[in-house]
Amino acid sequence: MSENMKGFKFVDEVYKDPIRKVKELRGKTGRKIIGYICAYPPLEILTAADTIPFRVFGDVNEPITEGNRILPPVICSYVRSIVDLGMKGRFDFLDGLIWSHSCDCMHKGGFVYTSCVSKPVHYILEIPTTTSEEAINFFKYELMEFKGWLEKLLGREFSMDCLKEAIEKHNRQRELVKRLYDLKREDPPLITGTDTLKIISVIEALPVEEGNRILEEVLEEAEEYGSRPKKRGARLMIWGSIIDSPALLQIIEENGAYVVVDDTCVCSRQFWLHSNNPHVKTTGDLMENLAKRYLIEVKCPRLYIGSYGTLKKDYKRDLEERFGYLKDYISKWKVDGVILHSLRCCDVHGYEVPQVKDYLDMLGIPSIYIEPEYDAKTLPPLKTRIQAFLETLSQL
Amino acid sequence: MYFAGVDIGSTFTKIVIIDSKGDIISKVIVPTRAEQRKLANKIMIEALNQANLSLNEINYIIATGYGRFNVPFADRQISELTCHAKGVSALFPSVRTAIDIGGQDLKGLKIKDGKLVNFIMNDKCAAGTGRFLEVMADLLNLSLKDLGEISLKSKRKVEISSKCTIFARHEVMEKISENVPIEDVIAGLHYAIADRIVRLVSQISIEPDIVVTGGVAKNIGVVKAIEDLLGYKVLVPEDPLITGALGAAIIGKNIVEGALSRGEEIRVGCRRLEEVELYW
Amino acid sequence: MSGERKRVIRRLESIKPLRAIIDKSYNESIEAMRRGKPVAWCMLNWWIGDVILKAIDVVPIYPENYGAVCAAFGVAEKYLSLSDSDGIPSHLCGYSRNCFGYVIRMMRELKGEIPPEAPMGGMAKPVLLLASSTICDPRYKWFQLLGRYMDTPIWILDTPMPSTIDHVMDENYVNCLVRFVVKNLREFISFLEGLLGKKMDWNRLDELVNATLELHRICFEVNELRKAVPCPMHSRDYWSVMPSVLFLLGDPKESIKLYQNLYKEVKYRVDNGICSVPEEKYRLMFSELPPWHSLALFEDLAERGWNFVIESWGYHPPKPAENLEKIEDPLERIVRYFYHFFTHYVRESVKMGVNCISISAPFIVWAKEYKVDGAMLHSLLTCRSATSHLYEMGEMLMRVWRVPSLAVEGDIVDYRVFSVDDVLRRAEAFEETMQYYRKERKKMGLDW
């Protein structure tokens, strides 16, 4: 059915049920499906091992029942949702699942998963907090361990040549995603934030070659797709944590605004949008190259960036060092205002919000902070805030 | 020309009709009880009667408040934050910070040159809203109207926690059982609600002139407590409930006048004056 | 409210002098602050940072503890309010929010002077912020956010953890972690030398590491004695003296002598069957952070025969590690010990046939070793790390050992959340539950 479709139509079709599509692919090719929950595990390793990396999302529409039995409310609702779905068998179709120590909730969630859910087999990727040379060395060691675990799971090893090929494909994907985002530099943007999330959700569910093909088709169709009559509207950036369902973006874009760029984990951070050169080197020590790039390029607040170990601290200079890439986003995508988003009980984003706000204030860019739960029912009260924020950006 | 603003809040529904000069020619305030949700049209008819106008004579109608998306005769929906800011600026052009203390929510508005530039809202918990006082009035078997005056009689107010209505309620019960004078307890409650309010609104940085609106603005005890905590005098409009509806009407006026000056068409809604269930 | 003056638990005599050195060292640090000695604000770092700071003569102050102090003295509310008003989200760690409020008051309102209302001498403006990534994220994000208010240099002790059972058991993996952290500590020392303009006394550091290990060894032996039935030492006593073990307060050599006395007294009780409560009907364990504000609750429970025999894994030293004395480098020694602390109960639980990698592991082991009838699990509203494992732990204790749990709710800075009356109301029903599960355990062939 979806074989004859391409580009945007294909995305719409697969988006309805990505799990079905990826199971189909497994059936045809025999490639195993390995789920991952955050942007740190290098997908190149999964691709080199001839598996299908599948980004696992929670479900904002599924009431959390089992998850609440085993995790207290102090753990963020996103992790509780994932554990809940795992306990309900939603991830049984996966051949493996990768948690990461990206934050406390993810770490503890992974531990609890260990004791409560037997399927699928899983791994917890450890990630250092700092980015020194030693940290990169440690992360490389960890990636070697991860490679070993994967090879044991699959019963076969993979070569550095396979890894090189995989790196090239993922480099290409990062480039194509950059070009996808470029479509939103137009005014009005050729695709909306909701479109972007759908497209990215689909490519994160499929093998990298499929994903690249879809992106190329979408880029080709973009002019025609985007030329449908659209009103100009406020151009917004969303900075924040997990937004894996279009519900929030729809509330924003229903009000006539566009989310033209984002700094969020499911979308831009996974593809290193901020980087001028998102290509991992394919010469030298490939695992070291991956360790170095993944540790530094994923712009997650859980990573400590900024002057530690310097004797003269300067807050403004620190902010520039940490968030300077947001200034680029704002100027390239002509952003009018920023929505700062953090799930309730998210420490890494919660502590970061006041500092990002300080930086945006320094730049004179208006912003608003919203703190929803990972639950579709908690979004309606945000309508008023978002509408009011858009009204402050307008002439009313 | 005439313009109408309809503000459907959780506690009260307010309609204001203004003329081209911006003067209020009619206003209606009724409690938004369950049955009133269906009857926004009836309230509108009442406002029209008061002004001696028909619906077609109104050039623009803006709906605001919680129920704004279910007003079939409105031409546009604007958030209550923007409308309040506009209404307060019309009454007090020097305003920089407005605090709207409603029955179930609390809003802080930063205003610059008559326009909303920043805001903060609490609609998640009762502390800092009219509900807090309602719960306490209920507990103490007093009328909500009298609380403010009683609080002013206190010579030594009691410390009551401001963070949570439930904790505060327990504390009040304890103090009463210890025979603490009632006016001291009530004064403590007023400071608790004022503290909560100031704590929230401080996040957008409070600058004078400060205007307080909403049902709770009628409570002189809360107003005095806020002044005490801030160290500034605050301004309260004569009718603190209608600033949202007034602002909505003024925005309607600005939209129409702007369109006319640019030679643009003014699109109005379908203007159905019928019974409709308001959900939120 | 239960009477604070009630004294049912038989407190150990040798606790008093240990408590005295803890109090003395607090006073000394306040004095040192007043005299302008360099002060560092630290996170609890499980000894790897503390030995270094002590060796180079910097006064460590723990804002985490200070949060509990402010809450106990009733000023936390004021600081939390300042933090909220400055736009800091309110679901973050209560200790950190208390600290932000304190710093806003100190830096913005008082130009760097200690607030007059600050209890116990307050916290002086530091020359260094020593953050840590161990156990929880706020412990480095918090100090990073302090940069908004103070331009104090910061260092992070970055300590990744083995996160799968295989890695816990893998010597090579642990070696890799040790190498990473030792390097970090070496750089930290160079940084400190630059900051303070003085050199590290490596002999002193070596001595401190050895003293720490010896102190911990004795403390561990004392806790082993608590396995006796009836138990000779109540959790209240351990909580009183844990600062000397956890924070290395005072002179470790003095602490060692006093701990030896403590050991003698506890041994005496064991040899003579003396119990820490009048009648030990039930043996309980407690996780994780104690309700500092309501310790009198335990007197009421002691009257009912509840003896708390083991508690708060985070405050305990591990079983002594083997072969550490062969390591010459004091940094490597203390780092190996650090990772030993974080992994050895996981290994013990695996030996018992239970694959538990979270903080529940020690309690799974202790339930059996301390012959525990029930667990009291203290959920905290604003502390993720000390709360996240509790539900899982309750389920595991029931599944593996048929040991029931009693869940109680509290918070680290908002003490109104905890209800003593509520716990006492539920005590009788829980006693019946504990009795029932004793029978169930017998059926399973377990011996307690």
Descriptive terms for the model:
heterotrimer, B: 280 residues, alpha/beta, Nucleotidyltransferase, domain 5, five-stranded mixed beta sheet, 8 helices, 38% helix, elongated, C: 448 residues, four-stranded parallel beta sheet, 16 helices, 8 strands, globular
Written account of the structure:
The complex is a heterotrimer of chains A (396), B (280) and C (448). In chain A, strands 2-1-3-4 form a 4-stranded parallel sheet. Chain A has a 4-stranded parallel sheet with strand order 6-5-7-8, with helices on both faces. Chain A has helices at residues 7-16, 18-29, 43-48, 66-70, 77-87, 104-116, 133-154, 160-182, 193-203, 208-226, 247-254, 286-297, 315-332, 347-363, 380-393; strands spanning 33-36, 52-55, 96-100, 122-125, 235-240, 258-264, 337-341, 367-370. Chain A is built from 15 helices and 8 strands. Chain B is of the alpha/beta class. Chain B has a 5-stranded mixed sheet with strand order 3-2-1-4-5. A 5-stranded mixed sheet of chain B has the order 8-7-6-9-10. In chain B, β1 (2-8) and β2 (12-19) form a beta hairpin. The mean pLDDT of chain B is 90. Chain C has 448 residues and is α/β, with parallel strands linked by helices. Chain C has one domain (15-444). Chain C is 52% helix and 9% strand. Chain C contains 16 helices and 8 strands.
Share of helical residues of chain A: 40-55%
Tally of individual domains of chain A:
1
Low-confidence stretches of chain A: none
Q: Hey, roughly how much beta strand do the residues of chain C contain?
A: 5-15%
Strand composition percent of chain A: 5-15%
Helical segment count of chain C: 16
Low-pLDDT runs of chain C: none
How many helical elements of chain A? 15
Quick one: biggest sheet of chain A? 4 strands, parallel
CATH topology of chain A: Rossmann fold
Rg result of chain C:
22 Å
Strand order of the largest sheet of chain A: 2-1-3-4
Pattern of helices and strands of chain A? HHEHEHHEHEHHHHEHEHHEHEH
Could you give the order of the helices and strands of chain C? HEHEHHHEHEHHHHHEHEHHEHEH
Structural class of chain A: alpha/beta
- The strand count of chain C comes to 8
Specify the oligomeric state. Answer: heterotrimer
